[in-house]
Design a protein that fits this description.
Elements lengths: L3 E5 L2 H4 L6 H7 L13 H11 L1 H9 L3 E3 L7 H14 L6 E7 L5 E5 L4 E5 L11 H14 L2 H22 L2 E6 L18 H11 L8 E2 L24 E2 L2 H6 L20 H19 L2
Parallel strand pairs: 1-2, 1-3, 3-6
Antiparallel strand pairs: 4-5, 7-8
Helix pairs in contact: 4-10, 7-8
Length: 291
């Protein structure tokens, strides 16, 4: 029996932007529902936590939600923290795990200088304070050893291994990809071929079909999924859908922070975006648990 929900991911699950003074200063001109840009940090942080999709989901499903997502977080970080949570939990089978899969350029590294894990996002100085030595090490690493396509293949393999372990433990879990768009071909669009990694791993990915949250979208946004639609066993009444969180709330352009009028250039979900995400994830949880 599910008694709680564990969530992890990146900025899209953290609620990035909902409490930033630089965003709020512009949003206050158009949106009365947001706190004032010069409100106290405590008030702004509370607003972000109260209005991100995991908290809204908690209100709908009436189960406590632990949200360990952070902006700039990597899939490596998600796997590490989720594993730690499971290993320390007395009854991990009583938890529903909802894991948002960030882009594959990011890493989770151990800082010898600070004796803690630090986020590496591909941009040094974003989200973490780095020493000069660390900045040079990160820049040299990305210049010598990083490749988006290879990283994406690694992330998919890690996902398959994680899912095998969760199933072995008897745990219920859902996966939500986000920033993998460069490696995922929209169905029939732009003439791009399926990445070689997807061809090799497609049969394994099909085995976690049910564990990939499906978001209902309009026809124009069909695709960009870890699953190709003609291969999926999804039997709900969604004619067009995606497994990609960004594609889903992009379908509702009003659900993004920023537009041409307010001058904010950002693709994170706003209040409406988080509301729609919570509704769609809640809908899929009901389908998943009753399957």
């Amino acid at each position: 029996m599910i008694k709680q929900i564990y969530v992890n991911g990146s900025s899209f699950t953290y609620g990035y932007g909902l409490d930033l003074p630089s965003f709020l200063k512009e949003l206050n001109k158009y949106e009365s529902e947001y706190p004032k840009w010069d409100a106290s940090e405590e008030e702004r942080v509370k607003f972000r936590i109260d209005n991100n999709w995991p908290t809204l989901l908690q209100n709908k499903i009436n189960l406590p939600v632990t949200n360990e997502a952070d902006y700039g977080g990597s899939w490596e970080r998600v796997l590490r923290m989720t594993s730690d949570f499971i290993l320390k939990h007395k009854n991990p089978q009583e938890v529903l795990y909802i894991l948002e899969m960030p882009n594959s350029v990011r890493h989770d590294v151990w800082s010898i200088n600070e004796q803690r894990y630090k986020k590496v996002t591909g941009n040094v100085g974003w989200g973490e304070p780095y020493t000069h030595h660390e900045e040079n090490a990160i820049m040299n690493w990305y210049g010598s050893f990083e490749d988006g396509g290879i990283n994406f293949e690694k992330e998919i393999k890690r996902t398959i291994f994680l899912c095998s372990w969760l199933r072995e433990l008897g745990c219920k879990f859902l996966i939500i990809p986000t920033e993998q768009l460069e490696e995922l071909r929209p169905d029939g669009k732009e003439g791009k071929e399926e990445p070689e990694a997807m061809k090799l791993l497609s049969e394994e990915i099909k085995k976690i079909d049910l564990n990939l949250v499906k978001f209902k979208v309009e026809k124009d946004w069909h695709g960009c999924s870890l699953l190709y639609h003609d291969k999926s066993d999804y039997t709900n009444d969604y004619e067009y859908w995606t497994t990609n969180m960004i594609v889903f709330y992009n379908d509702y352009i009003e659900g993004r922070i920023g537009n041409k009028e307010n001058g904010i250039d950002d693709g994170h979900p706003n209040l409406l975006g988080h509301q729609k995400l919570s509704e769609e994830i809640y809908r899929y949880i009901n389908y998943y648990l009753n399957f």
